[in-house]
Fold each of these.
Amino acid sequence: MALQYTEKVIEHFTNPQNVGEIEGADAQATEGSPACGDMVTFSLKINPETHIIEDVKFRSYGCASNIATASMATTMAKGKTIEEVKELGHKLVAEALGGLPAVKMHCSVLAMHGLKSAIKQWEIERGLFEEENIVLNEKTVKKLLRSVIHPQTGENIVKMGLMKWVKIDGDKVFVEISMGDTDSMFADNIYEETVEALEKMKCCGQALVKVVSNSGKLLKDNGDVL
């Protein structure tokens, strides 16, 4: 069945704003990967005194929702301070577009993560960002994996209760995700996003992820998972 897009999504897909790359950008970041189907790169020009994002552009490698959410995210960020943009969430991007199909909500997450990653890079280079002393435990892992969105429902896997367990062994993180037989078709997508999210933690040396069905059938893993 064809996805139902709002007029605003179609508008930003067919006539995206701020497409391209800023020459001599102050910061640049890429989120996603071709393997997952969607990728977006943002480049920013930031006033060092006011912290205002004076210009922002993007390049998208993905679907209509990927393009539309990146376009909307740039229009929401341009002219705002980096502090204001850091307070924006992915749901605000989706709402500004009049809503997204649940299966495409992850595109709004990708867009906001990309923007915030570029801002973080800019702050680090100028000594304005102090890396948190993150303790590797179940609580921090669950907090991080709230960014992994189930393609069918548009909700994160933690809220849906799909995380069967989390175990920590030194700098290794073991995660098992359990999915219903009817949504096992999304196992590859959720697996890839879970591994990608965990590997962003500097304190995580290795992310070992297993995805199983409710009946116990192995759907995806990356090796020596408990």
Amino acid sequence: MVESSRQAITWWEVRAMQATNLEDIDRPDFVALDKDGQVVLIAEVKGFPYNFKEEKTKKYAILRLIDYLQAAKVLIPFAMLVDVKNILIFTWDGNNLSEPIICFNTADALSHYEPTFCNKQIFSLYLRALTEAWINDLARHWKLKTPPFSKEMAEIGLLQLLEKGTTEF
């Protein structure tokens, strides 16, 4: 008897199948999935000492985002760059990455999840975890009834896509 249930594969498994060698797999820092497991956002995160005010760092990160978006072979509508100062969100139409459509102060968003955010150096791994906590809170309201920047995220259409979703890295 043939099993007819559909088994979902993850973003990373798709990327692994597309790669010819395991060394070829380059991943965004994390992805946000909608309630059906479809990727709706990819993110690059740079903690201390890096930031996207350095034009070379920002340009390289944007090129990486475009590479990920093109390699996905499905439309991923949003991309995000996060550093300790700013969260930049872009849209992707399948061919072009927009200029940032919205910019948030990182501390304003993430200090709800790390109260001493402004008083310490936040390195990349921890910044990624805090950013994922915020995105998961937007999706599932695990900490706050109204997470930071919910209104702005709804205005650009991202909040609705995140509803009941999750993140993966």
Amino acid sequence: MQNQPTKWIVITGCSSGIGRSLVWAMRRQGWGVIATARRLESLIDLPDGEDIVRVALDVLSDESVSLVVQQYQHLRIVGLINNAGYGQVGPLEYITTQELRNQMETNVMGLHRVTNYFLPLIRRNAHPGEGRIVHIASMLGRVSIPLGGAYSASKYAVVSLGEALRMELAPDIKVILVEPGAVRTELRNTATKVWGDLPRRVKGTRYEAILNRYLSFGKEVSQRWARDPDRSAEKIAKAINSIHPPRRVLIGPDAHIVLILKKLIPMSWYEALAQKIYGLKH
């Protein structure tokens, strides 16, 4: 592992899952890593080294992001991985406007905020074609599922932002969209923490059983299809290190299968299948 990296990358959302695995994957590729999370204590078990910095960064706060930029502008930062985010679960009929706003603030505005603060450093430091900006989107940024409308909406937005940014920054800075399917992360556990009193709101409605089915189905999918976050991170790191990185990186067999099905079958068939899977078909 390189003691004095010649290039550094900022990674948001390193407390667990793909973000945590990316810390190791990028260091193995010779990058210095600025590992960030909203709470510094969630990074306490990451190792020390000359090629890693652990720092608290709240993507919802201009002050927090600006402070990190000021603290580490002496490093040659040429890359950014926007990984921080969470998934808001629930039927749109019972999702509050504030919950939808919170989802967008973190997954979309937070990503945009971090990008805009670090982009000047990347422009200043990177040789032509060397800069990298990675948006961790989702396969749900191209297909929607019941009870995942809020999350899908945020990831659709991430995909659109990434595609526009790629055209705007080319050819000097490469923008990569990562679209994972199911990955073994804490995202599903986090979803149950952020939905507040949603189970009470849907009690006695058609969604009460469907919500329970969603969680059990999600667990089944994770066990059958979910990829290991370390393998996912290695695939992302390989794309970042490529001289000509791919525009999109699909991760997991489910992501490939679902996107192929959506292209091949009529939308009415896809919607009927999704309704059946999630218990919405009468």
Amino acid sequence: MKDFSNAYIFRFSVILIFIVAVLLSAAAMLLQPLQEKNVELEKKQSILASINIESTRKNAEKLYDKYIKKTLVVDDQGNIKKGIDAFSVDMAEEIRKPHNKRNLPVYFSTLDNGEKKIIVPLRGKGLWGPIYGYISFNDDYKTIYGATFNNDKETPGLGAEISTRSFQKQFQKKTIFDKNGKFISILVKKGGATPGSPNEVDAISGGTLTSKGLQAMLQDCLSGYVPWFRKQMKQQK
């Protein structure tokens, strides 16, 4: 067997590491556009799901262009912020900011029957990781039309139930204001929502902390839109 010197082994190792690093970097660069496209398609599918439009990776772009007619970004005072693309706003970054520094995206949709819907994104913390989604409103700016929630690490069969349609359907026709017009968001009630309550949904059985995280997310994210919602309501009178 040939006896290699320490210097030879060292040079060989350095060259091998360099080659592997170059190959990994090249693979990352080649895959990055595909990864970014996948993220874009998933985002469009979630936005569509909030208005109860089912889509696949193949038709998500086409359906998004069909149903999403306009976007804008507002601040927590209800003012429109110009020069910012709503779709490119990263809510993971925005929720780390104080409310008065946040960029708040708004999506406008027109359904096949002509009804107008307003969609806003959500981001918060679950038990084991981030929870996020989109919620849509009728054009009264207070009644929920649809909602979709997702998670990265919640427990299957427990906290992960927020991603099921059966849980999400509870939010339909609920309102984020009380009868006096005060913003109260949506309450996720352990033990079950009060029968007939327009502001409550059932919490997840066995998923108390995820349910609390979801309620906190709704309160935190939706409160930022309230001034803008009120401006739109006022203009309708």
